[in-house]
Amino acid sequence: METEKIIDANKQGHPLLTDELKGNSKKLYIESYGCQMNMNDSEIVASILAENDFNTTQYIEDADLVLVNTCSIRDKAEQTIRKRLQKYNSVKKINPNMKVGVLGCMAERLKSKFLDEEKIVDLVVGPDAYKDLPNLLEEVNAGRDAVNVVLSKEETYGDIAPVRLNSNGVSAFVSITRGCDNMCTFCVVPFTRGRERSRDPKSIIEEIQDLKDKNFKEITLLGQNVDSYLWYGGGLKKDFDKASDIAKATAVHFSHLLDLVASTFPTLRIRFFTNNPQDLEIEVLHVMAKHPNICRYLHLPVQSGSTSVLERMNRQHTREEYMELIDNIRKIIPGTAISQDMIIGFCDETEEEHKDTLSMMEYVQYDYGFMFAYSERPGTLAAKKLEDNVPNEVKKRRLNEVIQLQRNLSNKNTEKYIGQTIEVLIEGTSKKSNEHWMSRNSQNYVAVFPKGNEKVGDYVQVRVDECTSATLIGEAVSAPQETPFQ
Ligand code: SAH
Ligand code: F3S
Q1: Does the C-beta of 156 come closer than 6 Å to ligand 2?
Q2: What is the pLDDT of residues 14-66, one digit of tens each?
Protein backbone atom coordinates (compact mmCIF):
# COMPACT_ATOMS: atom_id res chain seq x y z
CA MET A 1 0.00 0.00 0.00
CA GLU A 2 1.14 3.48 -0.68
CA THR A 3 2.30 4.98 2.56
CA GLU A 4 3.19 8.35 4.04
CA LYS A 5 1.33 10.07 1.27
CA ILE A 6 -0.89 12.68 2.76
CA ILE A 7 -4.45 12.29 1.71
CA ASP A 8 -6.26 15.34 2.90
CA ALA A 9 -9.76 14.08 2.72
CA ASN A 10 -11.14 17.57 2.33
CA LYS A 11 -8.57 19.27 0.11
CA GLN A 12 -10.85 19.35 -2.84
CA GLY A 13 -13.80 20.14 -0.62
CA HIS A 14 -15.73 17.21 -1.91
CA PRO A 15 -19.29 18.36 -1.26
CA LEU A 16 -21.05 14.99 -0.91
CA LEU A 17 -21.65 15.20 2.78
CA THR A 18 -22.17 18.94 3.09
CA ASP A 19 -24.61 19.02 0.21
CA GLU A 20 -26.64 16.07 1.32
CA LEU A 21 -26.99 16.90 4.97
CA LYS A 22 -27.99 20.52 5.14
CA GLY A 23 -29.66 20.05 8.50
CA ASN A 24 -26.38 19.27 10.22
CA SER A 25 -24.90 22.12 12.20
CA LYS A 26 -21.39 21.12 13.26
CA LYS A 27 -18.24 21.03 11.20
CA LEU A 28 -15.74 18.20 10.94
CA TYR A 29 -12.29 18.60 9.41
CA ILE A 30 -10.76 15.19 8.83
CA GLU A 31 -7.29 14.48 7.52
CA SER A 32 -5.89 11.05 6.64
CA TYR A 33 -2.33 9.77 6.51
CA GLY A 34 -0.92 6.42 5.52
CA CYS A 35 -2.55 3.62 3.60
CA GLN A 36 -5.79 3.48 1.62
CA MET A 37 -7.32 1.57 4.50
CA ASN A 38 -7.05 4.76 6.54
CA MET A 39 -8.64 6.77 3.78
CA ASN A 40 -11.52 4.32 3.70
CA ASP A 41 -11.78 4.39 7.51
CA SER A 42 -12.05 8.18 7.40
CA GLU A 43 -15.02 7.79 5.08
CA ILE A 44 -16.59 5.45 7.65
CA VAL A 45 -15.90 7.96 10.41
CA ALA A 46 -17.44 10.78 8.35
CA SER A 47 -20.47 8.57 7.82
CA ILE A 48 -20.86 7.85 11.54
CA LEU A 49 -20.52 11.54 12.38
CA ALA A 50 -22.94 12.54 9.61
CA GLU A 51 -25.56 10.78 11.73
CA ASN A 52 -24.48 12.93 14.64
CA ASP A 53 -24.94 16.46 13.30
CA PHE A 54 -21.60 16.85 11.48
CA ASN A 55 -20.88 18.10 7.97
CA THR A 56 -17.33 18.09 6.64
CA THR A 57 -15.41 21.28 5.98
CA GLN A 58 -12.25 21.88 4.03
CA TYR A 59 -11.24 24.76 6.30
CA ILE A 60 -9.61 23.79 9.52
CA GLU A 61 -10.29 27.25 10.99
CA ASP A 62 -14.06 26.60 10.73
CA ALA A 63 -13.98 23.21 12.39
CA ASP A 64 -15.70 22.25 15.65
CA LEU A 65 -13.89 18.95 15.48
CA VAL A 66 -10.54 18.15 13.88
CA LEU A 67 -9.72 14.48 13.42
CA VAL A 68 -6.43 13.12 12.16
CA ASN A 69 -6.31 9.51 11.00
CA THR A 70 -2.75 8.42 11.69
CA CYS A 71 -0.08 6.00 10.47
CA SER A 72 2.60 4.26 12.54
CA ILE A 73 4.29 2.20 9.87
CA ARG A 74 7.59 4.09 10.04
CA ASP A 75 8.96 6.62 12.46
CA LYS A 76 8.85 9.32 9.79
CA ALA A 77 5.08 8.84 9.41
CA GLU A 78 4.62 9.51 13.12
CA GLN A 79 6.85 12.59 12.99
CA THR A 80 4.71 14.03 10.19
CA ILE A 81 1.63 13.67 12.34
CA ARG A 82 3.27 15.31 15.34
CA LYS A 83 3.99 18.31 13.14
CA ARG A 84 0.34 18.43 12.06
CA LEU A 85 -0.71 18.42 15.70
CA GLN A 86 1.40 21.54 16.24
CA LYS A 87 -0.46 23.18 13.37
CA TYR A 88 -3.82 22.28 14.95
CA ASN A 89 -2.53 23.74 18.19
CA SER A 90 -1.94 27.09 16.57
CA VAL A 91 -5.51 27.07 15.21
CA LYS A 92 -6.88 26.05 18.58
CA LYS A 93 -5.37 29.17 20.09
CA ILE A 94 -7.68 31.22 17.86
CA ASN A 95 -10.65 28.87 18.27
CA PRO A 96 -10.42 27.37 21.79
CA ASN A 97 -13.73 25.50 21.40
CA MET A 98 -12.30 23.35 18.65
CA LYS A 99 -11.74 19.73 19.72
CA VAL A 100 -8.90 17.60 18.39
CA GLY A 101 -9.00 13.82 18.05
CA VAL A 102 -6.39 11.29 16.99
CA LEU A 103 -7.60 8.19 15.15
CA GLY A 104 -5.93 5.14 13.64
CA CYS A 105 -2.69 3.30 14.20
CA MET A 106 -0.81 5.93 16.21
CA ALA A 107 -3.81 6.28 18.52
CA GLU A 108 -3.77 2.52 19.02
CA ARG A 109 -0.02 2.38 19.55
CA LEU A 110 0.27 5.24 22.02
CA LYS A 111 -3.17 5.01 23.65
CA SER A 112 -3.76 7.45 26.51
CA LYS A 113 -0.09 8.44 26.46
CA PHE A 114 -1.17 10.77 23.70
CA LEU A 115 -3.19 12.89 26.08
CA ASP A 116 -0.12 13.45 28.26
CA GLU A 117 2.34 13.94 25.43
CA GLU A 118 0.22 16.15 23.22
CA LYS A 119 -1.74 18.50 25.44
CA ILE A 120 -4.00 19.63 22.64
CA VAL A 121 -5.46 16.20 22.00
CA ASP A 122 -8.96 15.71 23.51
CA LEU A 123 -9.83 12.37 22.00
CA VAL A 124 -7.95 9.14 21.17
CA VAL A 125 -9.77 6.48 19.15
CA GLY A 126 -8.33 3.22 17.80
CA PRO A 127 -9.28 1.69 14.43
CA ASP A 128 -11.95 -0.63 15.84
CA ALA A 129 -13.73 1.92 18.05
CA TYR A 130 -15.14 4.43 15.58
CA LYS A 131 -18.74 3.52 16.36
CA ASP A 132 -18.08 4.79 19.87
CA LEU A 133 -17.21 8.27 18.55
CA PRO A 134 -20.60 9.85 19.37
CA ASN A 135 -20.33 8.70 23.02
CA LEU A 136 -16.72 9.77 23.23
CA LEU A 137 -17.61 13.21 21.88
CA GLU A 138 -20.21 13.58 24.62
CA GLU A 139 -17.48 12.88 27.15
CA VAL A 140 -15.25 15.48 25.53
CA ASN A 141 -18.05 18.04 25.49
CA ALA A 142 -18.59 17.38 29.19
CA GLY A 143 -14.97 18.43 29.69
CA ARG A 144 -13.44 14.98 30.05
CA ASP A 145 -10.73 13.44 27.90
CA ALA A 146 -11.94 10.40 26.02
CA VAL A 147 -10.05 7.29 24.94
CA ASN A 148 -11.24 4.08 23.31
CA VAL A 149 -8.55 1.87 21.86
CA VAL A 150 -10.23 -1.49 22.37
CA LEU A 151 -9.44 -3.78 19.45
CA SER A 152 -12.32 -5.93 18.28
CA LYS A 153 -12.46 -9.48 17.01
CA GLU A 154 -15.60 -8.83 14.98
CA GLU A 155 -15.82 -5.21 13.88
CA THR A 156 -15.70 -4.84 10.09
CA TYR A 157 -17.96 -1.75 9.76
CA GLY A 158 -19.80 -3.87 7.22
CA ASP A 159 -23.06 -2.17 8.19
CA ILE A 160 -21.79 1.36 7.58
CA ALA A 161 -22.01 2.93 4.15
CA PRO A 162 -18.90 5.08 3.88
CA VAL A 163 -19.36 8.69 2.80
CA ARG A 164 -17.11 9.09 -0.25
CA LEU A 165 -14.72 11.89 0.61
CA ASN A 166 -12.49 13.55 -1.94
CA SER A 167 -13.90 11.20 -4.51
CA ASN A 168 -13.48 11.47 -8.26
CA GLY A 169 -16.88 9.78 -8.58
CA VAL A 170 -15.26 7.05 -10.68
CA SER A 171 -13.26 4.77 -8.39
CA ALA A 172 -13.90 3.78 -4.79
CA PHE A 173 -12.38 1.52 -2.14
CA VAL A 174 -14.32 -1.27 -0.49
CA SER A 175 -12.78 -2.88 2.60
CA ILE A 176 -13.03 -6.67 2.73
CA THR A 177 -10.78 -7.54 5.66
CA ARG A 178 -9.41 -5.74 8.71
CA GLY A 179 -6.33 -6.45 10.79
CA CYS A 180 -3.55 -8.90 10.03
CA ASP A 181 -2.47 -12.22 11.56
CA ASN A 182 0.82 -12.58 9.74
CA MET A 183 3.26 -11.16 12.26
CA CYS A 184 6.02 -10.07 9.91
CA THR A 185 8.74 -9.21 12.42
CA PHE A 186 9.23 -5.61 11.21
CA CYS A 187 5.56 -4.67 11.11
CA VAL A 188 3.48 -2.73 13.61
CA VAL A 189 0.14 -3.40 11.85
CA PRO A 190 -0.86 -6.56 13.76
CA PHE A 191 -0.47 -4.55 16.99
CA THR A 192 -2.31 -1.44 15.83
CA ARG A 193 -5.05 -3.05 13.78
CA GLY A 194 -5.56 -6.29 15.65
CA ARG A 195 -6.63 -9.73 14.57
CA GLU A 196 -7.62 -10.45 11.05
CA ARG A 197 -11.34 -10.62 10.29
CA SER A 198 -13.31 -10.77 7.07
CA ARG A 199 -16.42 -8.96 6.09
CA ASP A 200 -19.69 -10.66 5.13
CA PRO A 201 -19.72 -11.09 1.32
CA LYS A 202 -23.35 -9.97 1.26
CA SER A 203 -22.50 -6.54 2.66
CA ILE A 204 -19.56 -6.28 0.24
CA ILE A 205 -21.84 -6.94 -2.74
CA GLU A 206 -24.43 -4.48 -1.40
CA GLU A 207 -21.83 -1.75 -1.04
CA ILE A 208 -20.57 -2.33 -4.58
CA GLN A 209 -24.13 -2.33 -5.94
CA ASP A 210 -24.69 1.01 -4.25
CA LEU A 211 -21.50 2.37 -5.84
CA LYS A 212 -22.58 1.10 -9.23
CA ASP A 213 -25.98 2.73 -8.78
CA LYS A 214 -24.13 5.98 -8.09
CA ASN A 215 -22.30 5.53 -11.40
CA PHE A 216 -18.91 4.53 -10.02
CA LYS A 217 -16.91 2.56 -12.60
CA GLU A 218 -14.09 0.98 -10.65
CA ILE A 219 -13.84 -0.57 -7.22
CA THR A 220 -10.78 -1.66 -5.28
CA LEU A 221 -11.18 -4.42 -2.72
CA LEU A 222 -9.01 -3.48 0.22
CA GLY A 223 -7.25 -5.40 2.96
CA GLN A 224 -3.84 -5.61 4.62
CA ASN A 225 -3.74 -9.06 3.09
CA VAL A 226 -6.68 -9.71 0.77
CA ASP A 227 -5.51 -13.26 0.05
CA SER A 228 -6.40 -14.42 3.51
CA TYR A 229 -10.03 -13.30 3.12
CA LEU A 230 -12.16 -16.06 4.60
CA TRP A 231 -15.86 -15.96 5.38
CA TYR A 232 -17.54 -18.94 6.96
CA GLY A 233 -20.34 -17.27 8.81
CA GLY A 234 -18.30 -14.94 10.99
CA GLY A 235 -15.53 -15.24 13.54
CA LEU A 236 -11.79 -15.02 13.38
CA LYS A 237 -9.72 -16.84 10.82
CA LYS A 238 -7.81 -18.64 13.53
CA ASP A 239 -11.05 -20.27 14.71
CA PHE A 240 -11.78 -21.70 11.26
CA ASP A 241 -10.49 -25.15 12.20
CA LYS A 242 -13.11 -25.36 14.93
CA ALA A 243 -15.96 -24.36 12.61
CA SER A 244 -18.63 -26.90 11.63
CA ASP A 245 -18.18 -29.01 8.51
CA ILE A 246 -21.00 -27.13 6.82
CA ALA A 247 -19.34 -23.81 7.56
CA LYS A 248 -16.06 -25.12 6.15
CA ALA A 249 -17.69 -26.58 3.05
CA THR A 250 -19.45 -23.32 2.22
CA ALA A 251 -16.56 -21.05 3.22
CA VAL A 252 -15.81 -18.14 0.90
CA HIS A 253 -12.11 -17.68 0.10
CA PHE A 254 -10.65 -14.67 -1.70
CA SER A 255 -10.75 -16.41 -5.08
CA HIS A 256 -14.49 -17.08 -4.57
CA LEU A 257 -15.18 -13.52 -3.50
CA LEU A 258 -13.28 -12.14 -6.48
CA ASP A 259 -15.14 -14.45 -8.85
CA LEU A 260 -18.46 -13.43 -7.28
CA VAL A 261 -17.71 -9.70 -7.50
CA ALA A 262 -16.37 -9.87 -11.06
CA SER A 263 -19.31 -11.89 -12.36
CA THR A 264 -21.96 -9.89 -10.47
CA PHE A 265 -20.56 -6.62 -11.87
CA PRO A 266 -19.20 -7.39 -15.35
CA THR A 267 -19.17 -3.72 -16.36
CA LEU A 268 -17.18 -2.55 -13.36
CA ARG A 269 -13.41 -2.59 -13.25
CA ILE A 270 -12.25 -4.61 -10.27
CA ARG A 271 -8.95 -4.01 -8.50
CA PHE A 272 -7.70 -5.35 -5.20
CA PHE A 273 -4.76 -5.02 -2.87
CA THR A 274 -2.62 -5.90 -1.02
CA ASN A 275 -1.67 -9.40 -1.99
CA ASN A 276 0.71 -11.39 0.12
CA PRO A 277 2.94 -13.80 -1.80
CA GLN A 278 2.71 -16.45 0.89
CA ASP A 279 -1.11 -16.48 0.83
CA LEU A 280 -1.85 -15.81 -2.83
CA GLU A 281 -3.60 -18.93 -4.15
CA ILE A 282 -3.09 -19.93 -7.75
CA GLU A 283 -6.89 -20.03 -8.06
CA VAL A 284 -6.90 -16.21 -7.79
CA LEU A 285 -4.78 -16.05 -10.95
CA HIS A 286 -7.23 -18.32 -12.75
CA VAL A 287 -10.15 -16.15 -11.65
CA MET A 288 -8.29 -13.11 -13.01
CA ALA A 289 -7.74 -14.90 -16.32
CA LYS A 290 -11.45 -15.72 -16.50
CA HIS A 291 -12.69 -12.13 -16.06
CA PRO A 292 -11.47 -9.33 -18.33
CA ASN A 293 -12.98 -6.78 -15.93
CA ILE A 294 -10.45 -7.73 -13.24
CA CYS A 295 -7.53 -5.37 -13.78
CA ARG A 296 -4.20 -6.81 -14.86
CA TYR A 297 -2.29 -5.47 -11.93
CA LEU A 298 -0.88 -7.13 -8.82
CA HIS A 299 0.80 -5.38 -5.92
CA LEU A 300 2.96 -8.12 -4.55
CA PRO A 301 5.27 -6.86 -1.79
CA VAL A 302 8.33 -9.04 -1.39
CA GLN A 303 10.32 -6.88 1.08
CA SER A 304 13.61 -8.60 0.19
CA GLY A 305 14.98 -10.85 -2.52
CA SER A 306 17.00 -12.91 -0.05
CA THR A 307 15.65 -16.09 1.53
CA SER A 308 17.64 -15.54 4.74
CA VAL A 309 16.28 -11.99 5.16
CA LEU A 310 12.76 -13.22 4.41
CA GLU A 311 13.21 -15.76 7.17
CA ARG A 312 14.30 -13.09 9.67
CA MET A 313 11.25 -11.08 8.59
CA ASN A 314 9.03 -14.13 9.20
CA ARG A 315 7.75 -14.01 5.64
CA GLN A 316 6.61 -17.54 4.91
CA HIS A 317 8.19 -18.03 1.50
CA THR A 318 11.61 -18.29 -0.09
CA ARG A 319 13.16 -16.36 -2.95
CA GLU A 320 12.58 -19.34 -5.25
CA GLU A 321 8.91 -19.71 -4.27
CA TYR A 322 8.30 -16.05 -5.02
CA MET A 323 9.98 -16.43 -8.41
CA GLU A 324 7.81 -19.43 -9.15
CA LEU A 325 4.74 -17.36 -8.32
CA ILE A 326 5.94 -14.67 -10.74
CA ASP A 327 6.42 -17.35 -13.44
CA ASN A 328 2.84 -18.49 -12.85
CA ILE A 329 1.51 -14.94 -13.13
CA ARG A 330 3.39 -14.47 -16.42
CA LYS A 331 1.96 -17.77 -17.68
CA ILE A 332 -1.66 -17.54 -16.50
CA ILE A 333 -2.28 -13.80 -16.86
CA PRO A 334 0.29 -12.47 -19.33
CA GLY A 335 0.66 -8.70 -19.51
CA THR A 336 -0.09 -8.21 -15.81
CA ALA A 337 1.78 -5.30 -14.22
CA ILE A 338 3.49 -6.16 -10.94
CA SER A 339 4.61 -3.76 -8.23
CA GLN A 340 6.61 -4.30 -5.07
CA ASP A 341 7.29 -3.02 -1.57
CA MET A 342 10.88 -3.39 -0.39
CA ILE A 343 12.47 -2.86 2.98
CA ILE A 344 16.13 -1.94 2.69
CA GLY A 345 18.70 -2.48 5.43
CA PHE A 346 16.69 -4.85 7.63
CA CYS A 347 18.54 -6.25 10.67
CA ASP A 348 21.84 -7.99 9.78
CA GLU A 349 21.33 -7.44 6.03
CA THR A 350 24.64 -8.25 4.28
CA GLU A 351 25.89 -6.91 0.97
CA GLU A 352 25.18 -10.30 -0.58
CA GLU A 353 21.59 -10.30 0.68
CA HIS A 354 21.18 -6.80 -0.72
CA LYS A 355 22.44 -8.03 -4.10
CA ASP A 356 19.76 -10.74 -3.95
CA THR A 357 17.18 -7.95 -3.73
CA LEU A 358 18.64 -6.24 -6.81
CA SER A 359 18.71 -9.48 -8.79
CA MET A 360 15.13 -10.28 -7.75
CA MET A 361 14.07 -6.90 -9.14
CA GLU A 362 15.83 -7.71 -12.41
CA TYR A 363 14.10 -11.08 -12.51
CA VAL A 364 10.61 -9.70 -11.96
CA GLN A 365 11.08 -6.48 -13.97
CA TYR A 366 8.67 -4.69 -11.63
CA ASP A 367 6.48 -1.99 -13.12
CA TYR A 368 6.51 0.14 -9.97
CA GLY A 369 7.85 -0.01 -6.47
CA PHE A 370 7.55 1.46 -3.00
CA MET A 371 10.92 1.27 -1.30
CA PHE A 372 11.70 2.11 2.30
CA ALA A 373 14.71 2.08 4.61
CA TYR A 374 13.99 -0.17 7.57
CA SER A 375 12.60 1.76 10.53
CA GLU A 376 12.46 -0.10 13.82
CA ARG A 377 9.01 0.04 15.41
CA PRO A 378 8.62 -0.34 19.16
CA GLY A 379 6.90 -3.52 20.27
CA THR A 380 7.48 -5.48 17.06
CA LEU A 381 9.20 -8.86 17.10
CA ALA A 382 12.23 -7.40 15.28
CA ALA A 383 12.55 -4.63 17.89
CA LYS A 384 12.52 -7.27 20.65
CA LYS A 385 14.72 -9.93 19.10
CA LEU A 386 16.92 -8.43 16.38
CA GLU A 387 19.32 -5.54 16.21
CA ASP A 388 18.74 -2.60 13.87
CA ASN A 389 22.42 -2.75 13.00
CA VAL A 390 22.78 -1.68 9.37
CA PRO A 391 24.39 1.78 9.58
CA ASN A 392 22.26 4.64 8.26
CA GLU A 393 24.66 5.55 5.48
CA VAL A 394 24.66 1.93 4.28
CA LYS A 395 20.86 1.85 4.34
CA LYS A 396 20.80 5.08 2.38
CA ARG A 397 23.27 3.86 -0.24
CA ARG A 398 21.44 0.56 -0.71
CA LEU A 399 18.10 2.32 -0.86
CA ASN A 400 19.45 4.62 -3.59
CA GLU A 401 20.64 1.60 -5.58
CA VAL A 402 17.24 -0.03 -5.31
CA ILE A 403 15.41 3.18 -6.24
CA GLN A 404 17.71 3.76 -9.22
CA LEU A 405 17.18 0.23 -10.47
CA GLN A 406 13.40 0.54 -10.07
CA ARG A 407 13.51 3.80 -12.00
CA ASN A 408 15.27 2.04 -14.88
CA LEU A 409 12.80 -0.84 -14.82
CA SER A 410 9.83 1.53 -14.69
CA ASN A 411 11.19 3.55 -17.62
CA LYS A 412 11.68 0.42 -19.64
CA ASN A 413 8.21 -0.88 -18.84
CA THR A 414 6.56 2.45 -19.60
CA GLU A 415 8.37 2.79 -22.94
CA LYS A 416 7.01 -0.60 -24.00
CA TYR A 417 3.61 1.05 -24.44
CA ILE A 418 4.77 3.51 -27.11
CA GLY A 419 2.94 2.70 -30.35
CA GLN A 420 0.31 0.56 -28.59
CA THR A 421 -3.39 1.34 -28.30
CA ILE A 422 -4.73 0.90 -24.77
CA GLU A 423 -8.14 1.00 -23.17
CA VAL A 424 -8.36 3.62 -20.43
CA LEU A 425 -10.93 4.80 -17.91
CA ILE A 426 -11.10 8.60 -17.51
CA GLU A 427 -10.72 9.68 -13.88
CA GLY A 428 -10.66 13.46 -14.30
CA THR A 429 -8.75 16.42 -15.68
CA SER A 430 -4.99 16.12 -15.75
CA LYS A 431 -3.33 17.98 -12.87
CA LYS A 432 -0.91 19.59 -15.28
CA SER A 433 -3.29 20.74 -18.00
CA ASN A 434 -6.96 21.64 -18.15
CA GLU A 435 -7.05 20.58 -21.77
CA HIS A 436 -6.05 16.97 -21.01
CA TRP A 437 -7.75 13.99 -19.39
CA MET A 438 -6.09 11.85 -16.75
CA SER A 439 -6.94 8.17 -17.12
CA ARG A 440 -5.65 4.71 -16.25
CA ASN A 441 -5.31 1.46 -18.10
CA SER A 442 -5.96 -1.95 -16.62
CA GLN A 443 -2.28 -2.23 -15.60
CA ASN A 444 -2.71 0.94 -13.50
CA TYR A 445 -0.51 3.12 -15.72
CA VAL A 446 -1.60 6.75 -15.88
CA ALA A 447 -2.34 7.97 -19.42
CA VAL A 448 -3.00 11.60 -20.39
CA PHE A 449 -4.48 12.74 -23.68
CA PRO A 450 -6.18 15.83 -25.14
CA LYS A 451 -9.86 16.24 -24.26
CA GLY A 452 -12.46 15.61 -26.96
CA ASN A 453 -16.13 14.83 -26.47
CA GLU A 454 -15.45 12.37 -23.63
CA LYS A 455 -16.57 12.79 -20.02
CA VAL A 456 -15.28 11.61 -16.64
CA GLY A 457 -16.06 7.89 -16.17
CA ASP A 458 -15.89 7.09 -19.90
CA TYR A 459 -13.78 4.34 -21.43
CA VAL A 460 -11.78 5.22 -24.50
CA GLN A 461 -9.04 3.71 -26.66
CA VAL A 462 -5.84 5.75 -26.59
CA ARG A 463 -2.84 5.42 -28.85
CA VAL A 464 0.34 5.98 -26.86
CA ASP A 465 2.81 8.26 -28.66
CA GLU A 466 5.31 9.10 -25.94
CA CYS A 467 5.89 8.79 -22.22
CA THR A 468 7.62 10.25 -19.20
CA SER A 469 8.99 7.87 -16.57
CA ALA A 470 5.54 7.15 -15.12
CA THR A 471 2.99 8.62 -17.52
CA LEU A 472 1.79 7.56 -20.95
CA ILE A 473 0.97 10.39 -23.34
CA GLY A 474 -1.22 9.88 -26.39
CA GLU A 475 -4.39 10.56 -28.28
CA ALA A 476 -7.92 9.12 -28.26
CA VAL A 477 -8.51 6.89 -31.27
CA SER A 478 -12.07 5.77 -30.53
CA ALA A 479 -15.40 7.24 -29.52
CA PRO A 480 -15.93 7.15 -25.75
CA GLN A 481 -18.07 4.42 -24.16
CA GLU A 482 -19.74 4.16 -20.78
CA THR A 483 -18.77 0.50 -20.39
CA PRO A 484 -15.53 -1.35 -21.12
CA PHE A 485 -14.75 -2.28 -24.73
CA GLN A 486 -13.76 -5.88 -23.97
N1 SAH B 1 0.02 -5.73 4.35
C2 SAH B 1 0.20 -4.34 4.11
C3 SAH B 1 1.43 -3.87 4.77
C4 SAH B 1 1.27 -2.50 5.16
S5 SAH B 1 2.74 -1.79 5.43
C6 SAH B 1 0.38 -4.14 2.69
O7 SAH B 1 0.93 -5.04 2.10
O8 SAH B 1 0.07 -3.10 2.17
C9 SAH B 1 3.20 -1.24 3.80
C10 SAH B 1 4.64 -1.44 3.54
O11 SAH B 1 5.40 -0.67 4.47
C12 SAH B 1 5.13 -2.87 3.75
O13 SAH B 1 4.88 -3.69 2.66
C14 SAH B 1 6.59 -2.67 3.99
O15 SAH B 1 7.32 -2.65 2.78
C16 SAH B 1 6.67 -1.28 4.62
N17 SAH B 1 7.00 -1.38 6.05
C18 SAH B 1 6.29 -1.99 7.02
N19 SAH B 1 6.95 -1.90 8.19
C20 SAH B 1 8.09 -1.22 7.96
C21 SAH B 1 9.19 -0.84 8.77
N22 SAH B 1 9.23 -1.15 10.06
N23 SAH B 1 10.20 -0.15 8.19
C24 SAH B 1 10.16 0.16 6.87
N25 SAH B 1 9.15 -0.18 6.06
C26 SAH B 1 8.12 -0.87 6.59
FE1 F3S C 1 2.35 -6.18 8.15
FE2 F3S C 1 3.10 -8.51 7.18
FE3 F3S C 1 0.57 -8.08 7.85
S4 F3S C 1 3.68 -6.50 6.40
S5 F3S C 1 0.26 -5.89 7.58
S6 F3S C 1 2.28 -8.15 9.24
S7 F3S C 1 1.32 -9.20 6.05
Answers
A1: no
A2: 333 444 556 788 999 999 999 989 999 999 999 999 999 999 888 888 899 99
Cβ–ligand 2 contact at 306 (below 6 Å): no
- Encode burial over 112-150: b for 16+ CB neighbours within 10 A, e otherwise: eebbeebebbbbbbbbbbbbbbeebbebbeeeeebbbbe
For domain 171-413, which CATH number applies: 3.80.30.20, 3.40.190.10, 3.90.190.20, 3.40.50.620?
3.80.30.20
CA-380 nearest atom, ligand 1: 22
Helix 319-332, helix 282-290: angle, nearest 10: 20
CATH number of the structural domain 421-476: 2.40.50.140
* Residue 99: strand pairing partners: 65
Say how many Å lie between the CA of residue 179 and the centre of ligand 1. Answer: 13
Counted residue by residue, the chain has a size of 486
Confidence (pTM): 0.92
The 10s digit of each residue's pLDDT in 330-378 is 999 999 999 999 999 999 999 999 999 999 999 999 999 999 999 999 9
